[in-house]
Specification:
The complex is a heterodimer of chains A (131) and B (583).
Chain A: E1 43-50, H1 55-65, E2 69-78, E3 83-91, H2 97-105, E4 110-116, H3 118-130
Antiparallel strand pairs in A: 1-3, 1-4, 2-3
Chain B: H1 23-33, E1 38-41, H2 48-54, E2 60-63, H3 67-81, E3 85-89, H4 93-107, E4 112-118, H5 134-138, E5 144-147, H6 151-166, E6 172-178, H7 179-183, H8 207-219, E7 223-227, H9 229-233, H10 237-247, E8 251-253, E9 268-271, H11 278-286, E10 289-293, H12 299-302, E11 313-318, E12 332-335, H13 338-348, H14 356-368, H15 383-393, E13 399-402, H16 406-414, E14 423-424, H17 435-445, E15 452-457, H18 458-464, H19 468-473, E16 479-484, H20 489-498, H21 514-521, E17 524-528, H22 531-543, E18 548-553, H23 577-582
Parallel strand pairs in B: 1-2, 1-3, 3-4, 4-6, 5-6, 7-8, 7-10, 8-9, 10-11, 11-12, 13-14, 13-15, 15-16, 16-18, 17-18
Helix pairs in contact in B: 1-2, 1-6, 3-4, 3-17, 8-13, 10-13, 11-14, 15-16, 15-22
The chains are: A alpha+beta (131), B alpha/beta (583).
């Protein structure tokens, strides 16, 4: 007890009524909480990058640091060879694919990041397998 | 006594020069074009051509004791000046010694440029003497890094590294300079710092979201502002004060946000988080709309995310889109410059929130959970008392640097910060040993009439105290107050709280006499053991025109409160040991 010092104790204080999910969203107390596993999903990200040494390391290093599992990688030069397209099938943990996209965009050699639907990824890898 | 044994040779027209500029010259000219006045570093084989180019430059080079010190000095220089601090190191161990400082700057988004020497390109990748894959090693701890392989573009690359370090969300950048590149002739034209093509930094936030956020803030019954380091980096403190005072919103800061709002203001609730004030934590925890400015919601701030400000709608303003909803979901994401977005919000506010009762509640919390400690003449000196006494003695614009640990928390809690860029500390990385080299960097960046005080712990001070030689050599007027409790005090406190008092490797059976050590370095040394000695000794140390070290023997059993255990609920901070036991 903290009566002798006069500070209300940790359990004697007014408490906020709400709660957040582990990913920091407020839980609406009137609704059933959403299934958190539902948005842990695979995603296909296709990047256009400057074709320079170390660019793949920069991207895969970012994925490793941020605990993004890479399921598949396909890379190929574009046009005159100053750019490349690298496509990844990834499984990002919370806070999810949007966070991964934003982090990717911060890498200097990354020119653009786009999310494809999963079928597009199948086609892409199929074409690589055939060739 | 004379501190400088040899006067630096003034470059003259007769100095040996080179006919054509080299890659190294291009690097230095790029720094000059960026307005760089100081650089911190150490010589070494692969960086020698760059130092040779510095010989002819007006940039004042400060030779540090260790590359880690150079990085921290540059980091602090960047914090105090707002412009990137520059550090130099050679290849191999020189570069790896920078890594802690780079990581520190990266975590705290401090602007900094590192130039490292590298083995000649022919040797790269062949395990040459003092070769390290510097860009590989520093990739995760820099905003971006480069290897310059063409002397014609070296200047451009260094200029770009400088521009990027400061633009948008600041951070450390590094340019690795192979020795053959810096020695070779350079045909590159001198250029100023230029951002790469297509590098786009948001300024104003989306107008529609601004309007919605302003409405939420105006409708709030319990609004609060959480002001982070981004408010200082973005120089938005005037806009913050205008917004907070016009709309009557209490202001809590993060640790890096210290100084963004004057702590003696009626609306100031000071710092929140693990060792923040009870009233700051109560304010954040109970608010219904939080305007979070330039903060990345570090876990030392939020405690457990599930219990962090659980009733609050979050308006998150950040220049880095990747911070939005990374830790705490943003109900109103506003990507942009802190000052610009604050102006947008200010203009968009339909009315002031009706928050009179709430403000009164916040004031009551301030009364209910004051920062306090007990001091008794017959006990060892309390560290908090020394922080307060030093604050009393020094002007309001004094720059405070710290190491990491208990002393850092007391320096944060018991000093009243009133101005931006006066708090210089290691937040995200928590780098012990940061304080002294940071004081050196801060001294060069601060105004001549500004004082620089470093609070350090005995453990922290021991990690980088070789930099005292630099302070003496450069005749720097800094006052170091070592709150000496003969322990790694924060670890000792955690052992007592969470490891049943097993004080493994946290107490020092013997520590050096820091006052005697200081004299050995050529600085002035002082010692405090009793309350009676405090005022006079601190004054003498402060008034000494040069580096002074006060070895202040403090109560080794004193702990830092308030405290929220790691991952805990910020409403349930412990005000003392008894309350900690209730958790």
């Amino acid at each position: 007890m903290s009566g002798e010092t006069g500070y209300p104790g940790p359990h004697e204080r007014a408490q906020p009524s709400g709660r957040r999910n582990p990913d920091g969203t407020r839980i609406d107390m009137d609704e059933t909480p959403p299934d958190r596993d539902a948005d842990e999903r695979r995603a296909v990200l296709t990047t256009v990058v400057k074709n320079e040494p170390g660019v793949t390391a920069k991207i895969t290093g970012l994925f490793a640091r941020r605990q993004v599992n890479i399921e598949r990688i396909v890379g190929e030069p574009m046009g005159d060879g100053t750019r490349s397209r690298i496509t990844f099938v990834v499984e990002p943990p919370h806070p999810g694919v949007d966070q991964v996209k934003r982090q990717l965009k911060k890498l200097l050699p990354v020119i653009s990041v786009e999310e494809l639907d999963l079928e597009a990824a199948e086609e892409l890898t199929a074409s690589v397998n055939e060739s | 006594m004379s501190k400088r044994t040899t006067a630096p040779e003034e470059p003259t027209d007769e100095s040996p020069g080179r006919s054509a500029p080299t890659g190294a010259d291009a690097a230095i000219v790029a720094l000059e074009a960026a307005g760089v006045e100081h650089a911190f570093g150490l010589q070494g084989g692969a960086i020698m051509p760059v130092y040779d180019a510095l010989y002819h430059s007006d940039i004042q080079h400060v030779t540090m004791g260790h590359e880690q010190g150079a990085a921290h000095a540059a980091d602090a220089y960047g914090i105090v000046s707002g412009d990137p601090g520059v550090c130099l190191a050679t290849s191999g161990p020189g570069a790896t010694n920078l890594v802690t400082g780079l990581a520190d700057a990266d975590m705290d988004s401090d602007p900094m440029v590192a130039l490292t020497g590298q083995v000649a390109t022919d040797f790269l990748g062949r395990d040459a003497f003092q070769e390290t894959d510097t860009t590989g090693v520093t990739m995760p701890v820099t905003k971006t890094n480069y290897v310059s392989t063409d002397p014609d573009t070296t200047g451009h690359t260094v200029g770009e590294a400088f521009a990027l370090a400061r633009e948008g969300r600041p951070g450390p950048t590094l340019v690795d300079l192979p020795k053959d590149v810096t020695k070779a002739d350079s045909a590159g034209e001198p250029v100023g710092p230029e951002l790469p093509d297509g590098f786009d930094v948001p300024d104003a936030a989306d107008g529609e979201t601004v309007a919605e956020a302003a409405e939420a803030l105006a409708d709030a019954e319990r609004p609060a502002i959480l002001s982070g380091g981004g408010v200082i980096k973005g120089e938005a403190w005037e806009e913050l004060r205008a917004f907070a005072t016009e709309y009557g919103v209490p202001v809590v800061t993060t640790m890096p946000g210290i100084g963004s709002f004057p702590e003696d203001h009626d609306l100031a609730m000071e710092v929140a988080g693990m060792h923040g004030t009870g009233y700051a934590n109560m304010t954040l925890q109970h608010c219904d709309v939080m305007l979070a400015l330039g903060t990345r919601f570090d876990d030392r701030l939020t405690g457990g995310v599930e219990t962090f400000a659980p009733d609050a709608e979050i308006v998150h303003v950040d220049i880095d889109p990747a911070e939005i909803s990374k830790i705490v979901h943003a109900d109103y994401p506003l990507v942009g410059d802190a000052g610009t977005v604050l102006d947008q919000l200010h203009d968009a506010m339909p009315a002031a929130p009706e928050a009179g009762e709430w403000r009164q509640q916040c004031r009551e919390w301030r009364e209910e959970y004051p920062l306090e400690y007990s001091a008794s003449e017959d006990e060892p000196v309390k560290p908090q008392f020394l922080v307060e006494a030093m604050d009393e003695l020094t002007p309001d614009d004094t720059v405070v640097t710290t190491g990491v640990g208990q002393h850092q928390m007391w320096a944060m809690q018991y000093w009243t910060y009133r101005h931006p860029r006066t708090w210089v500390s290691s937040h995200g990385l928590g780098t012990m040993g940061y304080g002294l080299p940071a004081a050196i960097g801060a001294r060069f960046a601060a105004d001549d009439d500004q004082s620089v005080v470093c609070f350090d712990g005995d453990g922290s001070f021991l990690m980088t105290l070789q930099e005292l030689s630099v302070a003496v050599r450069e005749e720097l007027d800094i006052t170091v107050v070592v709150l000496n409790n003969a322990a790694v005090g924060m670890v000792r406190q955690w052992q007592d709280a969470f490891f049943e008092g097993r004080r493994m490797a946290s107490e020092y059976p013997w520590v050096p006499g820091f006052d005697v050590l200081a004299e050995g370095f050529g600085a002035r040394g002082f010692r405090i053991e009793t309350y009676e000695e405090v005022d006079e000794t601190l004054r003498a140390a402060y008034e000494y025109d040069g580096p002074a070290v006060v070895d202040a023997h403090v109560d080794p059993e004193e702990d830092v409160y308030p405290m929220v255990p790691s991952g805990g609920d910020n409403t349930k901070f412990a005000m003392n040991e008894a309350q900690l036991e209730e958790l």
